[in-house]
Amino acid sequence: MTTLKPIDGYLVNPKKVEQVVSPAYDALTPAQRHVFATTHPENYLNVMRSREEFPEHERPTLEQLLASNYQRLQSMISDGDFVRQQQLCYFIYRLAVDDHVQTGLVAEIPIAEYLAGQVKKHEHTQAFKEDDLTAYQRVVRASSSPICLTYQAREDIDELLSEMTESAPLIDFVADDGARQSVWAISEPASCERLEAAFADLPVSYLTDGHHRAASAERFLELEREDNPNHTGDELYNNLLVAFFPSNQLRILEYNRCVNGTNGHTVSELLREISDNFDVEALTVTTAAEAAPRSRGEFAMYFSENWYRLSVRDQHVPSDLVDGLDVSVLQSQLLAPILGIVDPRTDPRMGYLSGAFNLDQLQSHCRDNDEIGFAVFPTSIEDLMAVADAERVMPPKSTWFDPKLRSGIFLLLR
Are 105 and 164 in contact (CB under 8 A)? Predict the structure, then answer.
């Protein structure tokens, strides 16, 4: 059972949406976020600054930074950048780019459901990131980046959300990446009850984006409860801000790999070793996009200014759920034994480019940095859910969900 809770908070001022709503956080490097925040002081990104963004000689202490984030948030509220909703409500959130459309529900759910395993995970988290996010919550006390959840698509929920979006949206704008973002507020009691009843029938949901935010929310709850002798369980810190999207509407893009160096191999030696486990085909392409993998088990390699198609032979694909994923096969059959990338999490020779970057950009990056590029076929949402159901974890950088949810649209104070 999934328990929805209506939101008691703010929505971005429709007159200021283009100035306030932040760019996709993970699509920018720390240095790019620093430049953007500095040149766009009215943007919500200034409420989410991190120490890694600043040049080392300008880096504030964590305490200074969090105080600055808090003060910037208070100023934005005072300046009318956000509009307080007069009633508890749910929000319907639609993202559309090119021919892709996904419509979901923004709500709160009890952290207790996350702790009970009703929200299923598929990634490990890093303690230092949890530390930073928990410290942020303790000082800034704001939630504006919904944790993205998915569920097995249901026609009745699709129809309900479609019915509730027949009117004009409160927020409707095209973001910098071309994604149209639209928001409707649902506050009428009977409509809220219909939403709550429909989602109550969902036995589980699956985390897609936001593993660190969910884990830090758990730690935030524990600390707040310890500090509150009158804790009842009804406080806002007991909840998670989430966005539910049906599984058949999510779009997963590839997460490509870049490796610095050949581990001592010449071109011919590298191709010969790869051919032990893969069928190797040299490609003649006009554009890099023509080299993109066409199906599971197929990879594209850019090396020494040439593209190659690598097709793993069936006998080299493990039957194990996680080990049989394409990103796992590439690691176990090529990156580790041939290029010496034993731990892709920590090896400094290993890099990643998300699906936000096309293959032309991957090619340019590898050419400019003298690296080998590997393009993979996107992981499926079915694989993600199967891994989560089995209480397993996927390799790092297995999925890139697109389009990205934005910060600075919804705002809850804790």
Answer: no
